Amino acid sequence: MTVRHRVLALLALAVGVFGAWRALRPAQEVPLPTTANEAEERMQDFRDALYFPIREFLDGGNPYHPAAMFAQWPVRQDFNLYQPYHLALHLPFALPGYRVGAVAFAVVSLLLLVALAYLTAVRLRPYVPMVVGTAVPAALLVSSQVGKAQLYVGQVNPLVAVGAAGALLVRESHPRWASAALAFAWLKPQFGLPLTILLCCRGSRKVAGYGTLAAAVASLPVLVLLVVNAGGVGPFAETIVANLVHARGTSYGAVDSVTAQRIDLPAVLFRATGFLLPGGELLALVGVLAVSAVLVRRLDRLGDPDAGAVADLLVGLAVVVCVVHQPGDILIAVPALALTAVVWWRRRREPGWGLLGVAVVASIVPFAHLHVFDVALVAVFGERAAVTVDGLAVVCAWLALAVFGLRLHRRAREKAAPHEVAA
Fold it and tell me: Taking phi first (over 0 means left), then psi (-120 to 50 degrees means alpha), and beta for anything else, what does residue 308 get?
């Protein structure tokens, strides 16, 4: 490494350590959950989606049943439809006392953010040394709003992001590892399903199949216990229906909520225009995936590494735009976003590449949406604008990237056409 690289790495390390210390404080200071402090935001996802659901499972209950969870535990949110293996995978964090489990989970989540930064460094290896490529993204992640939010509320997104990013990174070079990574991305089906479909469209059918199979096999023993505890398949299915009905009616999950932190296309469209398209969520899922699938196949066929970077970012953005997602879910696109930013910077003076810059900048908005900016947005434009800006930026990023990908493919075809005629 050069002297400049060493200085940059040391500076990033200092910023990262300070950011990590601040990001871990909520887990250390969070009060023990009671019915009186259900509105506590610190580690709320750890409380509602991990600790007490696993406790309910250990007690022989069904954590997917909203009524049971609200009656027996101090939770504010229902337990969403995570893969059943989630209840076994995160069991060690629910065995000790609440605060010990919260701190341990936050530390592991922090390490997973560092692992995500390492995957980013692997992407950037042709341009920067691995140490710098890891230290700088890690420091930016733990200092950004998206990174801090994972540790503040105790989300499982760092693990899902490492799985999704890993599957995209090694799907061709190490398909077995990619399959294992995809199984972790399946932890939340709204990640696993669209990512699996797009991997199939890109020719990684074995990765998609084996990764999905691994997630299903890992979930099967837990699922059997849940069905037995519920009294059979019928009663268990009824609780799943109740779970879906409850989720669609909450202020933080409904597509027509003006306060929900959602960045998917239907929710953003409603908050921006007030228009609720009938069947809009299904249309968005099918439409975004169809458009993205066609484009990534075309970009992959160009055989251009720069086009491949654009395709990977398009996959990441499509996953979070097509179905219900929150700003923190953009984590899955971090390695591809970093590489695409480098590609744009190198080719920014070429005609037509400015649109890629628009997509990159728009993708960064959720990371830069720090508390101080949020306060300013609320003061000037109101709370609705503050919860809409991240989603609007991500949707615009996907649209800009889709248009750019189409133009890039057309230019490549036009450039190749004279050679084909001559041949």
Answer: alpha
Find all residues with CB under 8 Å of 74, minimum gap 6, and list them.
33, 34, 35, 37, 38, 47, 52
- Are 186 and 178 in contact, with CB atoms under 8 Å apart? no
pLDDT attached to residue 423: 46
Q: What is the pLDDT of residue 345?
A: 93
Compute the distance between CA of residue 334 and CA of residue 241 in angstroms, rounded to an integer.
34
Query: Are the C-beta atoms of residues 129 and 1 closer than 8 Å to each other?
Result: yes
What whole-number distance in Å separates Cα of residue 137 and Cα of residue 335? 9
What's the whole-model pTM score?
0.91
pLDDT in the model for residue 122: 93
Per DSSP, the three-state class of 36 is helix
Helices 354-368 and 334-347 cross at an angle (nearest 10°) of 140
Helices (H) and strands (E) counted in the chain, each on its own, are: 21, 0
* Dihedral sign (CA 145, 316, 302, 129): positive
Instruction: Name residue 271's amino acid.
Output: R
Are 229 and 61 contacting, i.e. CB atoms less than 8 angstroms apart?
Answer: yes
Average pLDDT per consecutive 10 residues, the chain (423 residues; last block may be shorter): 81 88 88 86 92 93 89 88 94 94 95 95 91 91 89 92 94 94 95 95 94 96 91 88 76 70 87 82 92 94 90 96 90 94 92 92 90 78 82 94 92 70 45
Gap between the Cα atoms of 95 and 155, Å rounded: 18
Distances (CA, A) of 53 to 87, 105, 175, 205: 8, 15, 33, 34
- Spatial neighbors of 205 by CB under 8 A, at least 6 apart, are 199
Q: Distance between CA 63 and CA 240 in Å, rounded?
A: 10
Buried b (16+ CB within 10 A) or exposed e, 292-328: bbebbebbbebeeebbbbbbbbbbbbbbbbbbbbbbb
